[in-house]
Structure prediction request, 412 residues.
Amino acid sequence: MSPTVTVIGAGIIGLCCASYLQRHGRQVRLVDSLPPGRGTSFGNAGGLSSGACVPIAMPGIVKQIPKWLFDPEGPLVVRPGYLLKALPWLLQFIGSAKPEIVERSADALLGLTRPLFENLVPIARDAGVEDLIRRVGQLHLYSTDAAFAGDARGREMRTRRGVKLEILGAEAIRQMEPDLAPIFRHAVYFPDHGHCANPLGLSEGLAAEIVRRGGEIVQAQVRELEIGPDGVRSITTESGSLAVEELVIAAGAWSHRLAAKLGHKVPLESQRGYHAMLASPSLGPRRNVQWTERKFIATPMQEGVRFAGTVEIAGLEAAADYRRADVLLKQGLDMFPGLTGGEVTRWMGHRPCIPDSVPVIGRSPIHRNVTFAFGHGHIGLICAPTTGRLVAELVTGTKPSLDPRPYRVDRF
Ligand SMILES: Cc1cc2nc3c(=O)[nH]c(=O)nc-3n(C[C@H](O)[C@H](O)[C@H](O)COP(=O)(O)OP(=O)(O)OC[C@H]3O[C@@H](n4cnc5c(N)ncnc54)[C@H](O)[C@@H]3O)c2cc1C
Prediction:
């Protein structure tokens, strides 16, 4: 019988790995301290952008950071008490904004995002949650000429790589999104993009299908990894030890702690993000729309309208500061004047971020039975299906559908 693969992390990345491993004939066991999809994958903006390839650290970002930091409603906060700890990562992040690194990262990212729908639709369909995938395009909005001009490099990078986009003026924006405030002068429309109308529903659907196909889901916190002469032999949780044949580490923003136990030093930092969600909205977006200057996204979800965004550097332990979510709600109301609704819910999650935005996917060069799948930052939902397929190919020794070298764990 083929070996059982244990996957640590039942977020969207671990779930897609498990789904594809089952399709490659493997038994799977997911281990997570939370129920499936309740980590960062719970509250994202649902954006499904098959043309996403522009890394977060872009040339010129150093000049923008002070402006963001001094704006109380700005998109970036660094908690003073955490600054020293985050400094080495922040310096690597700034160092990644060099044009040659940005171009390399863009190619690596597009390798994961371009086959998004090809790899997502079959597993979502089998799980009975295909209806959550809404392929209705996406809009990036600009309220000033300067902001639109400032994003020219990102547009050029996408166009050069064949990503379909259309430039819209104020009237076309109004026709497409009639409830928006009439303050947007320019937009980029991505006709091939879309959104997921319930990211938790997608994760739960995939998890239920994994169980239907014979997979096991264990709710437990992995504390230790026991290493034998032939790789990882077992994992230790609060309720005992589990023997391991093959191991995949897909533990989101916590993955570097497990990788470190295995001798791999990976620069991973949490970029904490928030959302505010308004139930029963009176009006709102038709599709996933991003207010580019303010760096937040409004998405029509099954359960209301979600405003998601913000980057807060404060580590994995600090309590959430829900004033960040309140800012998102306020800006959302600026975006959609007259919007009213029912209950407001607030949420915080940890984006697992690598300085150059390129995740870690691949076999450990130290332990023969370990594979990594983490660090997907701002686009983990988008990258998850292709990551899952690639992980399954690497674990089973199948010819990879994508060159895995840009994602190596030993590239740092
Ligand atoms: C505000 C916001 C908006 C976003 N918008 C988008 C978007 O529009 N599109 C997009 O593609 N992405 C978006 N993202 C990013 C996306 O949500 C993440 O990249 C993705 O969810 C990461 O998935 P994951 O499976 O790696 O992590 P997670 O979902 O966090 O899963 C990791 C799991 O590992 C478990 N775990 C960790 N350590 C252990 C351990 N030792 N033992 C047991 N279990 C453990 C955790 O409990 C967790 O459940 C957004 C993120 C945020 C915060």
Q: What stands out?
A: The longest strand covers residues 269-278.
